[in-house]
Write a structure and sequence with these properties.
Ubiquitin-like (UB roll), Methylamine Dehydrogenase, Chain H, PFU, about 30% strand, 4-stranded antiparallel beta sheet, 19 helices, 38 strands, about 775 residues, K48-linked polyubiquitin modification-dependent protein binding, about 30% helix
Length: about 775
């Protein structure tokens, strides 16, 4: 009997990365939202969960295991810590296991032992009596993605180095080689004489532990396979990056393929009653059952089916799609070649649909975006390839997210968040949403042997991203970048509301009058060059000079949105604007240094946004550049600004509020400097001009790069820009660049870093 949805557990705010079954009515889960949750009554759809751990470092939590005989749940993740909490205990004190130096990507409790593995290329067996490392398993050449305890002193590990290793104590005794890409997960079979492994090479392999032989290879998944589970009847369930959960006959091929409305299905665990739970990139945990009595209500089944059917599949992701050869619905009268087969059909409106053969019938799994019938959409008078509805808050109308296929999704995400006053921490989710709904995934039709024969090697060994492989091309893909990133969006009503509240809290002598507030309102309503200059010279300066320190942020905000709107003509008629701006930045750096000691970087971030917006304007030349004929050079004020900024960044705690967003703004500043260098002939003619930027990034680069991937990416683009412009003559790259490659290309597997690395090699 086919598996169908039994229940949906809703509560996590980001990807569900790992699940551990407690019993047939309870489970624990971990997520990129920094929480470990304990769920009860999982037989029915609910959001009845208790947070047993919220990462004290707000880091992703990626692995979990249930320590049954102690009633503890072990959680590990990005901060390299393992936390032990009581199941059902709401955020009580936790024990901590300290020893790993990188993301803890797997935990397993078996034979009375807890074993963990990490991106630090080790696995560790723990002594739970004194919370120390009992055994340190070292030998893998890269991240150890999974680990299993086979007995009191025997262990199994798999790695990004494409090998599986058997250990006796901390001594390696055997290697299992056969996978051609990263090995992600292991499943030890009953009797512990055989085990299964799954890989980024899109295969599952069966191994004999005693001989080391590969006994069988299972082919069917279209992308990376992330997890495996053993059903009570001996069948196997797998999950992967191709939107599917697959149930396999252990002695044959896939017997059921379940497609979900999300790209990544990260994890699976099996209940003793034969049901299984999966966690995915749409933040959901879904329970599936083949017992009719536990099927979800019809409306929930219909809702899931409609969500899958409405998924978007990018036309460009389909190899050799010939629109003229696509049949009509009549083709669905013929059965599929095998479980999981996919065909394209054209509906009566000319839209191409993808249908998958599953459970003896064809099921629609999405529309091919970009096919006939998919036209440009109009939003605010502008045509876009896509205009998405994004649900941010329950009960509130969805927000509109316009996007063109040729845009950088990270820039679009940043603009969307700024326009809708949403936290910068949502950026990765917005990017993922764009990627899921525009790029789709690759579909291949044919027998298992045909599919296996046509697969190209995946060169992205650690990808959590949604581009499935990179193909090196002869021309540069990424470098150079010559568009300045600015922060000029604002919401008038919100800005005015904040201004009025802060104005009321000032001493009467420095408050704005009602007429002045009206003038500010008029300026914001029509933010032309003259009005922008007025906001800088009159109101921004007043706030920064005379209001109390806690209220100055809004003064810098007014300047931020104004500097990019001032034209050269208006600036010539008001020489004081540049002086005001210079004074504002100098005094602001001092205030920001004091504010950092209170645990927030809000003021520093806003000042950096001001300076970012100044780059590329005539203000920047007036303030920081001394032209000497055809050669330009940075003046002493600019050098002092960078020196002060480097000092403040070095003093900023990683636990400070808005830390990651601020580091991204620092990276943007360095990036914008290099864009300005490429576009300014006078700077290119002075070899010393780039050395100022290089000296600055040598001081702050490592800290910025470690903070988050977007900051690291912009910083790396800056390096590429200078290399492209032949303004970086040293043959040795900056020290932080290798760390960027390790963190985000090798370990996290972000496709954009792999493409950028390809460009950098060609420069």
């Amino acid at each position: 009997m086919s598996y169908k949805l039994s229940a949906t557990l809703t509560g996590h705010e980001q990807d569900v990365k790992s699940i551990a079954i407690v019993n047939d009515s309870q489970l624990v889960s971990v997520s990129r939202d920094s929480t470990t949750r304990f769920w009860t009554n999982i037989a029915s759809s609910n959001n009845d969960s208790t947070i047993v751990l919220h990462s004290p470092t707000t880091s992703f939590i990626n692995s979990v295991s249930y320590i049954s005989d102690r009633g503890l749940v072990a959680s590990g993740g990005q901060d390299a810590m393992i936390y032990l909490n009581e199941v059902g205990g709401e955020e009580k004190d936790s024990y901590q296991l300290i020893g790993h130096q990188g993301n803890v990507c797997a935990l397993h409790y078996g034979h009375g032992q807890l074993i963990s593995s990490s991106w630090d290329a080790t696995a560790k067996v723990w002594n739970l009596e004194d919370f120390s490392v009992k055994l340190d398993l070292k030998g893998h050449g890269s991240s150890v993605w999974d680990c299993k305890a086979l007995s009191d002193n025997k262990y199994l590990t798999c790695s990004a180095d494409k090998t599986i290793r058997l250990w006796s104590g901390n001594h390696e005794i055997k290697q299992f080689k056969g996978h051609t890409d990263v090995v992600r997960k292991l499943l030890v079979l009953p009797g512990e004489e055989q085990f299964l492994s799954c890989s980024n090479d899109c295969t599952i392999k069966l191994w004999d532990i005693a001989t080391g032989q590969n006994l069988r290879t299972f082919v069917g998944h279209d992308s990376f396979i992330y997890d495996l589970g053993l059903l009570p009847n001996g069948n196997v369930v797998s999950t992967g990056e191709d939107r599917t959960v697959r149930v396999w006959d252990f002695n044959g091929g896939p017997i059921q393929v379940i497609t979900l409305p999300c790209i990544s299905i990260w994890c699976v665990d099996v209940l003793s009653n034969g049901d299984f739970a999966v966690g995915s990139s749409d933040n959901q945990i879904r329970i599936f059952t083949n017992d009719k009595s536990r099927y979800a209500p019809v409306d929930e089944l219909v809702e899931l089916r409609k969500a899958v059917e409405s998924s978007a599949i990018a036309e460009q992701s389909l190899d050799n799609l010939k629109k003229t050869d696509i049949p009509s619905y009549e083709a669905l009268a013929q059965p599929g070649k095998n479980e999981g087969s996919v065909i394209m059909v054209k509906n009566d409106e000319g839209v191409i649909e993808a249908h998958q053969w599953s459970g003896g019938q064809w099921n629609k799994i999405g529309d091919v975006v970009g096919s006939a019938g998919n036209k440009k959409q109009l939003y605010n008078g502008v045509e876009y390839d896509y205009v998405f509805d994004v649900d941010i808050k329950e009960g509130a109308p969805p927000l509109k997210l316009p996007y063109n296929a040729n845009e950088n999704p990270y820039v679009v995400a940043e603009k969307f968040l700024a326009e809708n006053d949403l936290p910068g921490s949502y950026a990765e989710e917005v990017v993922r949403f764009i990627e899921q709904n525009t790029k789709g995934f690759k579909l291949e039709e044919g027998t298992e042997k045909e599919v296996a024969a046509t697969k190209e090697p995946v060169i992205d060994p650690y990808s959590d991203a949604y581009n499935r492989q990179a193909k090196l091309e002869h021309e540069l893909k990424v470098i150079p970048q010559n568009s300045v990133i600015s922060y000029k969006d604002y919401k008038k009503d919100q800005l005015l509301n904040g201004l009025n509240k802060l104005n009321a809290n000032q001493e009467p002598a420095v408050q704005f009058s009602s007429d002045q507030i009206s003038t500010i309102t008029e300026c914001l309503t029509d933010l032309n060059s003259a009005n922008a200059l007025k906001l800088i010279c009159q109101f921004g300066r007043h706030i920064i000079k005379k209001w109390n320190t806690g209220s100055k942020l809004i003064g810098y905000d007014l300047i931020r949105i104004s500097v990019t709107r001032v034209t050269t003509v208006d600036l010539i008629n008001s020489t004081e604007a540049a002086e005001i701006l210079l004074d504002a930045v100098i005094s602001g750096i001092s205030d920001a240094s004091a504010e950092i000691k209170t645990g927030t970087t809000a003021l520093l971030m806003m000042i950096l946004k001001v300076v970012n917006n100044v780059i590329g304007t005539v203000f920047f030349v007036q303030l920081y550049i001394d032209p000497e004929g055809e050669v330009y050079q940075y003046n002493d004020l600019f050098k002092q600004f960078l020196k002060s900024l480097a000092t403040i960044i070095g003093e900023t705690s990683r636990e400070a509020k808005l830390y990651n967003t601020t580091m991204t703004t620092v990276a943007t500043l360095i990036y914008n400097f290099t864009v300005n260098h490429i576009k300014t002939t006078g700077l290119k003619k002075n070899p010393k001009s780039s050395s100022i930027i290089i000296e600055f990034w040598n001081k702050v680069g490592a800290q910025v790069a470690e903070s988050n991937s977007e900051a690291a990416y912009r910083l790396s683009i800056a390096y590429g820009n200078l290399k492209y412009a032949k303004a970086y003559s040293d043959n040795v790259p900056p020290t932080w660049l290798a760390e960027v490659g390790q963190l985000y290309a090798v370990e996290a597997g972000e496709q954009r870093f792999i493409e950028l690395a390809s460009d950098l090699k060609k420069l």
